[in-house]
Amino acid sequence: MASVPFHYVDLRAFCYVTEDRKRVADALGTFVPDGDDGEALELDYAETEGFNGDRILVVSIRLERADEMRHVLSKLTELDDIDTVIEELDHRVDEDCTFFLTLDKQAAFRGDVVQGDGITLRAKVEAYPAKKEHAVENVAETLASLRGD
């Protein structure tokens, strides 16, 4: 895959008070490549408060380099339902040319890539002119290339 149709990819997961911070970071790490030095890229942690006053840790990372985004896209090749994602692109890309996908946090902890809840992937799509239909087309072409079309 030569070109990457994204300006950046954001990955985010919530770590609730009942969850282990390291396990949530490991789940997110399924999609995060190692840095140039072979070390894991650094995740960001922000503490917030839930509706009932409980602590929620937001674990996130923004990937802006082409190789990092290629790594995320290569992980998406493991999705069994990539055809469904492609069919739903009109609902997964907004008017600001942003692509959204949610992934299963428990499966990611096991190293599997499955649609579900827990990890949010948000990617700003390159589209010129910046119109939703161009963004949908770019993402569709990229995802189709992942499945070998």
From TrEMBL:
<dbReference type="InterPro" id="IPR022803">
    <property type="entry name" value="Ribosomal_uL5_dom_sf"/>
</dbReference>
<protein>
    <submittedName>
        <fullName>RNA-binding protein</fullName>
    </submittedName>
</protein>
<dbReference type="InterPro" id="IPR002739">
    <property type="entry name" value="PAB1135-like"/>
</dbReference>
<dbReference type="Pfam" id="PF01877">
    <property type="entry name" value="RNA_binding"/>
</dbReference>
